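Lab manual, section 2.4: Encoding a predicted structure.

Procedure: take the sequence of the chain (76 residues), apply the prediction step described in section 2.3, and record the output as structure tokens. A sample record is shown.
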Amino acid sequence: MKTVLVWKLDRISHRPKDGINTLASRCEQGVQVVSVTQQIDLNGAIGSMLASVMVELAEIESEYCRERQTAEIRVA
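Recorded output:
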């Protein structure tokens, strides 16, 4: 079995949809995906679901950061 190690799930892709598709395709191919800092093994159905949620949460956080940055620029 091949294993892919990633630092964090949000590093897989800049877009959540692409990240989810990448994770799903790897899991379907029997590739084990492991997030090092998050200590998550994305093998199996539960792992795929968890990966989807984690990537979406990372995208939400990224969106909040952009919103805060835009607001700070407007204030300045």
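Check your result against the sample. The two ends are 53 Å apart (CA to CA).
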